[in-house]
Amino acid sequence: METAIATRVPDNVLEVIFSFLSLHDLRNCSLVCKRWYAFLNDENNDVWRLHCIRKLAEEALKSDLLSSVPTYKAKLRAFHHAWNPNDCSRNIFVKPNGFTLHRNPVAQSTDASRGKIGFRHGRHTWEVIWEGPLGTVAVIGIATKDAPLQCHGYVALLGSDDQSWGWNLVDNHLLHNGDAQGNYPMLNNAPKYQVGERIRVILDCDDNTLSFEKNYEFLGVAFRGLPDKKLYPTVSAVYGNTEVSMVYLGPPLDG
């Protein structure tokens, strides 16, 4: 039953109150009554706009980087899933926009970074945009917390053990447990990745599969039989000053 207070508070007052609450508190508020649920379900209202302004860099909000997440709430969600500045190689830092990692020009080193949030249930999609040179090895995919984030030499770090799964964009090979798992996508003369293209990574924890999509074309399932572990968006890079952005999109849109 809706409380009398909840139904009487004007929208403009709700906006002010909700704009100062934490995301956890807002989740609880959405359960109070149908009106508050509907109010917070509007992903473009001033509550989410103000939270975005406080959390996200102006550079990110004004750039095309977040064009695939059009609402304020979706942009905020993407920020909370972006690269983790505390879970990356010492040779990598996350730029002020919050979504782009930068690999420092360190010789004979391969460096990786994981996202802030891992997934064990449900279906999840995120975009990866490689905005700098690929170098000899450029791998995107997923990893557990046990996968290493730095090693000596220029190697395919992501996919080098049984805790990570990757697609090397340079030679179109799938990698896991230190072995090449075949070419991907399964096309004759499959085109190589062009810097700046958006690749969508699709992790299905219900079906235990990892797939990729490029230029809105589904490329097929890359890996099956993923373990029942928390899996994190991950990339590994070797080229100095290369930059890679990641934007979490939410559940994939089928069809």
Automatic annotation (TrEMBL):
Protein name, UniProt field:
F-box/SPRY domain-containing protein 1
Q: Where in the cell is it found?
A: Synapse
Q: What does the UniProt keyword field contain?
A: Neurogenesis, Synapse, Ubl conjugation pathway
Q: Give me the Gene Ontology terms describing cellular component.
A: SCF ubiquitin ligase complex; synapse
Q: What does this protein do?
A: Required in the presynaptic motoneuron to down-regulate the levels of wnd and restrain synaptic terminal growth at the neuromuscular junction (NMJ).
Could you tell me which InterPro entries the record lists for this protein? B30.2/SPRY (IPR001870), B30.2/SPRY_sf (IPR043136), ConA-like_dom_sf (IPR013320), F-box-like_dom_sf (IPR036047), F-box_dom (IPR001810), FBXO45-Fsn/SPSB_families (IPR050672), SPRY_dom (IPR003877), SPRY_FBXO45 (IPR035784)
- In terms of one coarse class, where is the protein primarily found? other
What family name appears in the similarity comment? Belongs to the FBXO45/Fsn family.
Q: Which Pfam families match?
A: F-box-like, SPRY
Magnesium among keywords: no
List, alphabetically, the SMART domains matched: FBOX, SPRY
Q: Is Thylakoid found in the keyword set?
A: no
Q: Name the pathway.
A: Protein modification; protein ubiquitination
Limits of the F-box domain: 3-51
One GO biological process this protein is involved in is: negative regulation of nervous system development
Q: How does it assemble?
A: Component of an E3 ubiquitin ligase complex composed of hiw and Fsn.
Give the B30.2/SPRY domain ranges.
61-253
Q: Which organism is it from?
A: Phaedon cochleariae (Mustard beetle)
